[in-house]
Amino acid sequence: MRSVITGVAGVGKTTVLDIVARESGIPVVNYGTLMFEVAKRRGLVENRDQIRKLSRETQVDLQKLAGEEIGKMENAIVDTHMSIKTPFGYLPGLPEWVLRSINASVFVIIEADPAIIKRRRDNDPTRARDDEGVDSIREHQEMNRYFAAAYSIFSGATVKIVKNEEGKPEQAADEIVRVIK
């Protein structure tokens, strides 16, 4: 079974997924890392944050290649983004050709208070993120819900929204494990 677990940057997805992987024994595959590896091999980017600034066509090509690799895996938690906010608008993180390749059983969206997400982003020196306000983060979380609903209609997978309350990643992880096991 393949599960797709998503959330906006700074929601605490990596922390929660580390716990989920440990508790479930299911490997986590980072979709963005696969895309980055392909883009870097092609000389298109030097760091992962540059991917979202590539042309739409290039991003689509990278999505296809990463989706095909994941589709070959028997059991995995796919760590990705439901939608990608670009200078041109929101790009589906899982367009039709990727949905077919991945064939997920469930989409889980991890959410948190937008003000907390902003604070986490502001305090993370390891990433070169665009400066977004609380309203923009809220909008992105809402867009993720819309994309998840559309993906579910197409794929038949269920959608689960999990709150990652401040200081309680274990609680969010436990809820996710119950859904994906």
CATH architecture grouping: 3-Layer(aba) Sandwich
Give the CA-based shape: globular
The poorly predicted ranges are none
CATH class: Alpha Beta
Give the amount of beta strand, in percent. 15-25%
Question: What is the number of beta strands?
Answer: 7
Biggest β-sheet description: 5 strands, parallel
Which percent bin holds the helix content?
Answer: 40-55%
Structural class estimated from helices and strands: alpha/beta
Estimated radius of gyration: 15 Å
CATH topology: Rossmann fold
Question: How are strands sequenced across the largest beta sheet?
Answer: 2-3-1-6-7
Distance between the termini: 9 Å
Helix count, DSSP H or I runs of 4 or more residues? 7
Q: How much is the average pLDDT?
A: 92
Question: How would you describe this structure in keywords?
Answer:
181 residues; alpha/beta; Rossmann fold; 5-stranded parallel sheet; 49% helix; globular
Write a short abstract of this structure.
The protein is of the alpha/beta class and 181 residues long. It contains 7 helices and 7 strands. It has a 5-stranded parallel sheet with strand order 2-3-1-6-7, sandwiched between helices.
What does this structure look like?
There is one protein chain. By secondary structure, this protein is an alpha/beta fold. The protein has one domain (2-30, 76-180): P-loop containing nucleotide triphosphate hydrolases (Rossmann fold, 3-Layer(aba) Sandwich), CATH 3.40.50. Helix content is 49%, strand content 18%. It has 7 helices and 7 strands. It has helices spanning 13-24, 31-41, 56-71, 96-102, 114-122, 134-155, 169-180; strands spanning 2-6, 28-30, 76-80, 83-86, 89-92, 106-111, 158-163. The strands form 2 sheets. Strands 2-3-1-6-7 form a 5-stranded parallel sheet, with helices on both faces. It has a two-stranded antiparallel sheet with strand order 4-5. Helix 1 crosses helix 7 (169-180). The longest helix is centred in the last third of the chain and has 22 residues, at 134-155. The termini are close together. The relative contact order is 0.22. The mean pLDDT is 92.
